Amino acid sequence: MTTTLSPLETQVLDWLASQKDAMVALLCDVVNIDSGSYDKAGVDAVGQRFSAFFAEHGLLTTNEPNATYGDAIHVRLDDVARNERPVLLMGHRDTVFPKGEVARRPFRIEGGKAYGPGVADMKAGLVLNAFVMAALKRFGSPVPVIGLITSDEEIASPSSRPIIERVARSARCVLNSEPGRPSGNIVTGRKGGVFMAFEVTGKAAHSGGNFEKGISAIGEIAHKIVALHALTGLRPGITVNVGLVSGGQSVNTTAPLAQGQIDLRYVKREDRAVALAAIEEIIAKNYVPGTSARLEIRGEFLPLNAGEAAADLFATYQAAAAQAGLQVEGEFTGGCADSGFTAAVGCPTLCATGPVGANAHTPEEVLELDSVVPRAQAAALTILRLPPE
User: pLDDT tens digit string along 256-269?
Assistant: First the structure.
């Protein structure tokens, strides 16, 4: 069903439609800055480029500094105090790629598609949020709107999580501009994830002359990996993957040490405790007598579970997207994102409201350039059509 646009909606949508070249130019600038999660200087350089854009458009920014990771950037339309809770437009500017990746494959456009490190995940989403906020600053917004640009999502947001949760507790709703799905849909549900490392200790011995005196940490870790992988399906949606292993001293020595890293994914919050207890039991068990092991949680995301309020928000977004010429449904994905943190504190959240992309975390990462403007229009129209609180 088509709804007649108000004069304000027409102004905002028309302005966004005129900004495609400017959006692409800003995207080129930020993609061509290396910004791996541990590269604070690079992540902050991307933040400075966005801050310059915000200043050009009269938006106000403040930085929340961090000594190890990139600073968090808070954005607002103005200093006007309102009683209403704000809409939060959120995204991260770090990537998974090492320093030097931009030199190897800088931003480029071929056949209406854009390529480059982080082009879809998720620098294009940040560009979308920036232009939506600029449009609302230029023409006005009936509801308060704020932005948050974080710095370390790709490593489970060790510095940003408390900031995200704090801001979300005071927000009305969240649009997290992770890349839209290849289908064109947004994400209304995500798995939670726990990222762990474990270490097994054995005893070194010459594998020819004193084999019987050795205790193989590699033999132990092999048993543990089989048992850990068998936990997949423990409950619907639970998967356990040992994605990295290392160990040993030399080919002719029984391995005194071995390490592994575990990725646990789950759907419901109560599944976490069940799966984690099973993992801890396997790590504590000795399959090879004389070995010992320890387990460490290194990071985690919470699941995004849609509630009634989020369903209402999605209905508003879906209608707004239709007005922008898009047919959008909600999808569930096994991937994790910061949107799980905002949903967990009770803030209605939609994820993957950014432009449509694919092949994230690979050299083939791609962005559909024709999706940038209509997805920005859908986000802006969603904000403009939220009822007053």
Answer: 999 999 999 999 99
Identity at 389, one-letter amino acid code? E
Tokens of 193: 């994830």
- Peptide bond before 122: cis, by omega within 30 degrees of 0? yes
Cα dist from 193 to 167, 267, 328, 348, 370, whole Å = 22, 9, 26, 20, 32
Tens digits of residue pLDDT in 145-163? 999 999 999 999 999 999 9
**Sheet with 192-201, edge to edge strand ranges:** 239-247, 257-266, 192-201, 292-301
For residue 53, give both structure tokens: 């854009």
HEC string for the chain: CCCCCCHHHHHHHHHHHCCHHHHHHHHHHHHCCCCECCCHHHHHHHHHHHHHHHHHCCCEEEEECCCCCCCEEEEECCCCCCCCCCEEEEEECCECCCCCHHHHCCCEEECCEEECCCHHHHHHHHHHHHHHHHHHHHHCCCCCEEEEEECCHHHCCCCCHHHHHHHHHCCCEEEECCCECCCCCEEEEECEEEEEEEEEECECCECCCCHHHCECHHHHHHHHHHHHHCCCCCCCCCEEEEEEEEECCCCCECCCEEEEEEEEEECCHHHHHHHHHHHHHHHHCCCCCCCEEEEEEEEEECCECCCHHHHHHHHHHHHHHHHCCCCCCEEEECCCCCHHHHHHCCCCEEECCCCEEECCCCCCCEEEHHHHHHHHHHHHHHHHCCCCC
Q: What percentage of the chain reaches a pLDDT higher than 90?
A: 95
Q: Which residues pair with 248 in a beta bridge?
A: none
Length of the chain: 389
Structural tokens at position 276: 């984690």
79 — pLDDT class (breaks 50, 70, 90): confident
Q: Are strands 87-92 and 173-176 parallel, antiparallel or unpaired?
A: parallel
